[in-house]
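Fold these two proteins, one after the other.
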Amino acid sequence: MKLSIRDYQGVSFSFDVLALYCNRLLIQFGFGVVGIFEVIFLFNQFDSNIPLVALIYASIFLLSVILTPFGAMLISLFGMKRLMILSIPFAFCSILSLFLWDLNPLLALFGLIFSTVIYKTLYWVPYHVDFAKFSDKKTRGRQLSILLAVSEIVTIITPLIGGAIITASGYSNLFIVSLGILLFAVIPLFFIQEKYETFSYSYWETYTELFSKKNRSLLLGYTGDGAQSGVTLLVWPIFIFMLLRGEYLVVGAISSITILALLVLRFVVGDLVDRWSRKKVLTIGTLLNTTGWLVKVFIETGFQIFIIDTYHGLGKVVNQMSVDVTTYNQATDNGHYIDEFTVLKEMAVNAGKTLILLVVGVVIFFYSLKVAFVIAAVASLFVTLLNKEMMVGEKKLIVPEGVRQ
């Protein structure tokens, strides 16, 4: 199929989408310069103890699973806009904890875990619900292509910037740069509309819905997506850092070049998501993503990192784009239950990250770090379950294709 600029001429954005995504980009830039180097920082601080680092991140995601329903309950009291605004100081404090690490490592670790969990609890459900409400379903794939292309530009430059700063002046200055950017992230949120939702589940009812048979596709699909994200978060940065013998600038440069090679694919995939069936795109993406994980087992050099990660990136682009569009479509299709769907999805994703990190933390005692790539490949297969229509609330949990609430 031939891709044309004309395919994107009918795509427009509401002011709320632009303001919301501007906030997202600032947060992404602030966290992005630290990015993969945060895991490496903790890896070095704990004397290359991968199981301990895995346990730290697993605790963050487990606490997120526990607290996410409480965060959703606050939406009816404060509104989504105010909750996101309240989350930004905690994002700031998570990086501040790293900056102050040498003063008291134990206290800084507690601050990192606490601040990150509260930020995630207050921010992500309102963000996803707002984006689902503000974006246009008919062109959502192409909207996401354009926005994610801009996001990719940030993603391209931040590893290189981070690696350069660490090489030139160390981690402290890196954290200062990150903190400076995060200070401005709250500003765009003041310009979006305030939205309220009433979370319909009680705390324990949320878990009943999450683990119910009728929501099994949602649970397994997003748990699989979270599991492979957990490997990307923890194992991949440590793996390439060890392979490249601690060269921070090279780690950042290879990461940036790989992402640059994938930038144009955002537009191609976004057009396919809008034109092809969700099932077709998600299935192709999962196939590419799964084989990409398996091929990573054979990486031995820096050049192979670039070639194989670019191939895997192709699968991740197709997979993540289709998952994102599927998620926002599923959310809006749930009407009044849009926040309930989003909460269940976020809990499943964080549960997947928790499980994979605990498994990796144990398996690493007996096998090579590369075994995590095989586990991620298996987990990625579960993402195809998101092809199934999912409706939450009042016995409308599974609806045939084409039927809308």
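Now the second one:
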Amino acid sequence: MTNEPVCRAVSEISFFCRLNLNQKLDLPVRKSELGTLFYLHDTQEEITPVAVSEFLGISRPCTTALLKRLESRGYISRKPSPVDGRSYTLSLTPCGVQLVIAAQKECSRTIALLQKELGPERFRLLLELIEESNAALRKNLRLR
């Protein structure tokens, strides 16, 4: 016997993610790279490669490769960490900032569609639930 609510939840969440991932964006970077650029843009404190790895939930070798691609394309720069001489901090270049602004415009179509279809109150609730869900899943990842 299957657990119908669990099956439905898995199916709906997976479908929502696939629809979002399959959305065509006219941008020169992958969505994982774009997530990194958004993270650097929206975070006030100094960001290290370890912080990017933890934020994205990916391995450090994958993070290193991703950051090298972004740096080689001129979207990010790095400088030695003022705290730890062995590490470095990351920042967006002017080119990276321009790409984030362009990406925000591209992504705003999907957000506007969801806001229109759900209405402002339900859209706000959706964001709150996604934020809470992300926090719970991140916490679970750290416990392993």
